[in-house]
């Protein structure tokens, strides 16, 4: 008995007609230090990836800075302009830290403010292995990994090495801003 492939072909065509973001797996961050390409993990962290992609598509990350750079820990960005004005965000998302992904060098996680379900737009790139951030550490909740750097770890390493200082209420701020000029979905 031979099975018809017509229903599968129709299904494939239907899936291809869905909005492009549903198929996006990679995002490029064009920074003043170079380009970083992140591969996303939608199966492990679907709500986090969808949230991140919405911020990318809306242009939220364009002209934001890496405002917290800790060379032996991580680099954090996605929430502040060059003058350290916090950008408005959408509602927080639920924490997806129990997805099996680990906070290892090159992984990308959501930043949050104390409350486990407080992540909005800010993210960080681990510059070393940080098992203390994996579920259930450090507070019983962990930090949600939703992607990994697949190109541009040399750029991440350049950023982690920039001089930093305190600026107002912020610590570890690059003395020369490291700007995310644009964030874009790539194939």
Strand content: 25-35%
Q: What is the distance, rounded to the nearest whole angstrom, between the alpha carbons of the first and last residues? A: 38 Å
Low-confidence regions: 1-23
What is the gyration radius calculated from CA atoms?
18 Å
- Topology as H/E string? HEEHEEEEEHEEE
Given the C-alpha coordinates, what overall shape results? Answer: globular
Oligomer: single chain
Architecture overview:
The chain is α+β, with helices and mostly antiparallel strands. Helices cover 17% and strands 30% of the residues. It has one domain: Cyclophilin, CATH 2.40.100.10. The chain has an eight-stranded antiparallel barrel with strand order 1-2-7-5-6-4-3-10. A hairpin with a 2-residue loop joins strand 8 (164-167) and strand 9. The longest helix has 13 residues, at 46-58. It is globular and about 35 Å long. The chain starts with 5 loop residues before the first helix and ends with a strand.
């Amino acid at each position: 008995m031979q099975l018809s492939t017509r229903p599968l072909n129709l299904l494939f065509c239907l899936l291809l007609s869905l909005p492009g973001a549903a198929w996006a797996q990679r995002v490029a961050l064009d920074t003043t230090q170079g380009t970083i390409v992140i591969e996303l993990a939608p199966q492990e962290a679907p709500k986090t990836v969808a949230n991140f992609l919405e911020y990318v598509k809306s242009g939220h990350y364009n002209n934001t800075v890496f405002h917290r750079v800790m060379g032996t820990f991580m680099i954090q960005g996605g929430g502040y302009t060059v003058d350290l004005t916090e950008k408005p965000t959408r509602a927080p998302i639920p924490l997806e830290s129990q997805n099996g992904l680990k906070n290892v060098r090159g992984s990308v996680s959501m930043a949050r403010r104390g409350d486990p379900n407080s992540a909005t737009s800010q993210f960080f790139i681990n510059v070393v292995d940080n098992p203390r951030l994996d579920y259930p550490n450090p507070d019983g909740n962990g930090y949600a990994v939703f992607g990994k750097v697949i190109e541009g770890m040399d750029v991440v390493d350049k950023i982690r090495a920039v001089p930093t200082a305190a600026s107002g209420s912020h610590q570890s701020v690059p003395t020369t801003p490291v700007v995310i000029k644009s964030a874009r979905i790539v194939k």
